Amino acid sequence: MSRRHRFWRDNSLTLAFGTAFLLALAGQAFAGHAEFNEQLTVDGLQRIGLGEYLMSSDFAVDVTENWQSEFLQFFLFIFGTVWLVQRGSPESKEVHKAGTESDREQRVGDHAGDDSPRWAGTKDWRQTVYSRSLGLLMGGIFLLSWLAQSITGVAAHNEQQLRELQDPVEWRAYLATPDFWNRTLQNWQSELLAVAAMVILSVYLRQRGSPESKPVGTAHRSTGVEG
Q: pTM above 0.85?
């Protein structure tokens, strides 16, 4: 097998979902542009081009409100599964392993191997940071995208206010508006429902060949077993 073929095979999961993301984002851009122009026509305003729409706060807020909820989901799930368990779910660690686990189990400090990441073998702040780096990054992206949602959201909200000949609001005031929290909570609840459903349904249901499922013949009570 050539190097190029190995690259595509070895990274197929990331490449497939990355491509699907870009296609979905493009589809959202075209559909959102059409809907936005329809609303402008109803309001008796001039339609705008696709490029102008892509630079608008309306497009930005629609994108960021979805991004922040997705990264919130992963942030909560990554940190939550350190201490919380679900007996029988492959999405959970084994019940008796709740917590941060020992240095030996995590292969850090004196227990790090030759192939371990460099910071895993340290005994100072670098190990502390690296051992929580995935959750911290997810949490950081969530906060940044939520901030971006609030900034683009107030801009989009004020544009609508001006079209309706109403006074615009300041950013701080917008954070207390139903528009901001409706955009936020409608995404949060769907993400949290999806995680809860995946955790409990994977106790009893199977998907052959998927690491998100237990092997088909594994007992329901088996926990932390991947296919």
A: yes
